[in-house]
């Protein structure tokens, strides 16, 4: 039994990727040194593959994002230098960023309404990194996926573009005896017309003579028969997230002249693979496809690199886990056991993290737990009286610059170099400064700044029971930005208040309302690795109950506004529309459960960096009073979507793209507001940035927020 793997993380065990690229941006590293460092990361990836599997792609490494690289290879964007390449990633010319399928990886979106629709194989730019090894199949993201995830194409424009792009791929593939081509978009809900276009495109690409290894992942391919008929050498199917792939395989068989790349090891979750089950499935698979090879079921970059240095984890939990390197070993292990070499190890069973009280509470939930006693319309009147906010209220999304000083103090508190009291005083001093600053700028609803939080999910994970965190389990969320997803292994509960101390302290310093700041259940789930032994819905309700208790504690401290962030609500939606109703049912209800406290409390939520247009009706079912939503990177498309539904809640559309270091001018912000006010009644409109400010620096934060308040004042005068 042969083995195949792909998508190994590029980050490096010590986050070398981040350090290198950011070092280059800061001018601490020359281009030659930066390239050399990233090339050596590529060598590391290849070495990991070579040690364990028979086949793998090469050239997966990127200087920032593979989707941008795909556009460059196809001659769509033509950066003349590394600097110009990075201009597409950040700063003034940055492309829009959107989440990649239902993951928390953000890719750069090519928008053909602003980019000329022209392709050329000469676009294989010298700016991109070269492959450093002869072994491995040259890596490509397929043309269909690239175009499907781009924007600005009409239906007919798409057909023509795919035809042209396929011809470019034919030229790119001509020099490759074999290639690894990923088409995750094949698992989306596609029309018959799109499937026809795929057939045409792959016919053109096949003229190259290249043995294409076509890999699909993130679920079932609904056009199985047509997929098997494509002129490619190998087809990769996800048997972990795509259970119908197995049914289709057994029902329709598999072509004799092709290799099946059987994705049996999860690339999305950290639980050890049940090798016995995987081998049994593999036996079924090889009956229909004797040519099968064992593989991962999705790219491994959704996982941290290795479990090896995780000494802090609960020992029993560690036993149950496997990260990217360990997954490679599992792939090999499955092949070995299948071939009769060795036995499948028994899977350890977790006996930690069981909490009967929480389980009973979730079981006992009734419809009234999900419905507020007072309607949104009546709440609005009550809130107006309690809060007395001006027209066009101004606020921010929560976090403020996490400067080197803040990070250093946190690190020192972690290692015990400073006492917890010292750290707490430090955080309080930051809160004090920030409250004074916000008052001096004239913001209306204040925040405490989130200085005590590493990350909006990890922070709560550390406070909640049933969730563990890792020491070095970093993964990339976009570009060079990394985070450590916590691991939800048991029943979740709140042993003690988590954020009440900081929020109440901030409120004690000002008469203006301070927002309590929480991360919602869906986002905690989306940005963690989650247990698979109970339904996600139950995990969400457990978290919701913990958060609801937190809000009730805020209320006791006189907090009048609470924001429950749900930036991941769209991202977590399943790739197939047919799975949406079940998902949104629990996602919306978990929010309603969280926020079902005293109706006098004004509940805010915040969302960002997704295509929200298609879920505005679901957003409407979440029982908040105010929503702040990112618009800058999606160029205000969201405004049009809100036009479609009668949205009688208050809304703040981001007027400042906080992922860019540029300070937004008045003109730029006026434009967003002008467009929005054509759709949204002015009495419902808030003024705020796109997202939290933790990645920004102080000078641009100060300048931008002053502009933002000036804008609100100008609107009020009008
Ligand atoms: N409150 C969070 C912050 O300001 C929200 C971040 C997010 O939406 N990702 O950082
Ligand atoms: Zn955000």
Give an overview in words.
By secondary structure, the protein is of the alpha/beta class. 41% of the residues lie in helices and 13% in strands. The protein contains 25 helices and 21 strands. The strands form five sheets. It has an eight-stranded parallel β-sheet with strand order 1-10-9-8-7-6-5-2. Helix 13 (356-363) packs across helix 20. The model has no long low-confidence stretch (mean pLDDT 95). The protein binds glutamine and zinc ion. Glutamine binds next to loops.
Cα Rg? 26 Å
The number of strands is 21
The computed structural class is: alpha/beta
Reported for the largest beta sheet, the result is: 8 strands, parallel
What is the percentage of strand-forming residues? Answer: 5-15%
- How much helix, percentage-wise, in residues? 40-55%
Strand order of the largest sheet: 1-10-9-8-7-6-5-2
Characterize the quaternary organization of these chains. single chain
Distance between the termini: 73 Å
Bound compounds: glutamine, zinc ion
Number of helices: 25
Pick out its properties.
globular, six-stranded parallel sheet, 25 helices, binds zinc ion, 13% strand, alpha/beta, 718 residues, binds glutamine, eight-stranded parallel sheet
Write a brief caption for the model.
This protein is of the alpha/beta class and 718 residues long. Helix content is 41%, strand content 13%.
């Amino acid at each position: 039994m042969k083995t195949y793997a792909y998508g190994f993380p590029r980050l490096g065990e010590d986050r070398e990727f981040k350090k290198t690229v950011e070092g280059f941006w800061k001018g601490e590293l020359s281009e030659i040194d930066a390239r050399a460092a990233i090339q050596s990361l590529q060598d590391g990836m290849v070495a990991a593959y070579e040690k364990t599997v028979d086949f793998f792609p090469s050239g997966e490494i990127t200087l920032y994002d593979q989707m941008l690289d795909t556009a460059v290879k196809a001659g769509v964007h033509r950066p003349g230098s590394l600097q110009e390449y990075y201009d597409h990633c950040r700063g003034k010319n940055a492309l829009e960023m959107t989440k990649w399928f239902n993951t928390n990886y953000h890719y750069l979106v090519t928008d053909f309404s602003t980019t000329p629709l022209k392709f050329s194989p000469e676009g294989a730019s010298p700016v991109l990194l070269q492959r450093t090894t002869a072994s491995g199949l040259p890596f490509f993201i397929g043309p269909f996926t690239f175009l499907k995830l781009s924007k600005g194409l009409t239906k007919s424009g798409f057909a023509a573009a795919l035809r042209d792009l396929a011809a470019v791929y034919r030229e790119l593939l001509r020099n490759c005896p074999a290639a690894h081509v990923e088409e995750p978009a094949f698992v989306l809900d596609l029309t018959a017309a799109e499937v026809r276009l795929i057939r045409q495109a792959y016919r053109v690409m096949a003229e190259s003579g290249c043995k294409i290894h076509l890999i699909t992942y993130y679920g079932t391919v609904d056009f199985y028969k047509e997929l098997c008929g494509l002129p490619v050498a190998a087809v990769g199917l996800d048997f972990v997230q795509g259970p119908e792939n197995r049914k289709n395989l057994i029902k329709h068989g598999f072509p004799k002249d092709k290799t099946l790349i059987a994705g049996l090891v999860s690339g999305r979750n950290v639980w050890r693979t049940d090798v016995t089950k995987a081998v049994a499935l593999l036996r079924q698979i090889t009956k229909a496809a004797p040519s099968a090879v064992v593989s991962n079921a999705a790219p491994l970059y959704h996982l941290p690199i290795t479990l090896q240095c995780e000494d802090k984890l609960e020992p029993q939990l560690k036993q149950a886990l496997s990260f990217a390197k360990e997954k490679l070993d599992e792939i090999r292990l499955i092949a070995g056991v299948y071939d009769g070499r060795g036995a499948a190890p028994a899977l350890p069973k977790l006996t930690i993290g069981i909490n009967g009280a929480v389980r009973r509470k979730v079981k006992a939930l009734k419809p009234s737990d999900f419905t507020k006693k007072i309607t949104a319309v009546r709440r609005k009147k009550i809130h107006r009286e309690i809060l007395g906010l001006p027209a066009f209220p101004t606020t921010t999304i929560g976090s403020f610059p996490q400067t080197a000083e803040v990070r250093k103090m946190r690190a020192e508190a972690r290692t015990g170099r400073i006492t917890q009291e010292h750290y707490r005083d430090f955080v309080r001093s930051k809160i004090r400064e920030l409250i004074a600053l916000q008052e001096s700028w004239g913001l209306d609803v204040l925040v405490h700044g989130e200085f005590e939080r590493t990350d909006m999910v990890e922070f709560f994970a550390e406070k909640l029971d049933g969730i563990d965190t890792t020491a070095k389990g970093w993964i990339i969320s976009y570009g060079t930005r990394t985070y450590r997803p916590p691991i939800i292994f048991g029943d979740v509960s709140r042993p003690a208040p988590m954020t009440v101390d900081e929020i109440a302290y901030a409120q004690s310093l000002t008469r203006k309302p301070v927002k309590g700041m929480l991360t919602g259940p869906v986002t905690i789930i989306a940005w963690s690795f989650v247990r698979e032994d109970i339904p996600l819905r139950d995990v969400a309700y457990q978290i919701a109950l913990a958060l609801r208790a937190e809000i009730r504690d805020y209320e006791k401290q006189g907090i009048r506004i609470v924001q429950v962030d749900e930036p991941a609500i769209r991202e977590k939606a399943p790739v197939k529309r047919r799975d949406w109703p079940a998902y949104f049912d629990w996602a919306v209800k978990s929010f309603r459960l969280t926020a079902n406290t005293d109706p006098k409390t004004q509940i805010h939520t915040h969302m960002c960096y997704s295509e929200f247009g298609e879920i505005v009706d679901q957003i409407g079912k979440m029982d908040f009073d105010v929503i702040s939503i990112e618009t800058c990177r999606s160029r205000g498309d969201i405004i049009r979507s809100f036009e479609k539904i009668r949205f009688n809640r208050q809304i703040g559309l981001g007027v400042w793209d906080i992922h860019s270091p540029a300070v937004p001018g008045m003109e730029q912000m006026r434009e967003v507001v002008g467009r929005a006010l054509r759709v949204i009644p002015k009495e419902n409109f808030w003024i705020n940035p796109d997202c939290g400010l933790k990645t920004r620096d102080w000078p641009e934060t100060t300048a931008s927020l002053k502009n933002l308040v000036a804008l609100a004042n100008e609107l009020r005068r009008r």
